[in-house]
Amino acid sequence: MSETTTTAPGPAAESRPAPPAVPFRELVELACRAPSLHNTQPWRWRADGTRLRLYADRTRQLPHSDPDGRAVAISCGAALHHAQVAAEALGWEVVVRRCPDPADPDLLATLDLAPGRVVPAAQERLEALRARSTDRRRFTSWPLPAERLDRLAERAAAWGAKVVPVVDPGRQVALEELMRRADEIERGDPDHVAEVAPWVGSRGAQGVPVTSIPEVNPHRPAVPSRYQPGEPADPRGELPDPQGEPGEFVEGLMVLGTLEDDPPAWLRCGETLSALWLGTLRQGLSLLPLSQVTEVPATRERLRHDVLDGLLWPQLTVRVGWQEITRGPLPRAPRGPVEEVLRFD
Question: Residue 253 in contact with residue 172, Cβ under 8 Å?
Answer without folding.
Answer: yes
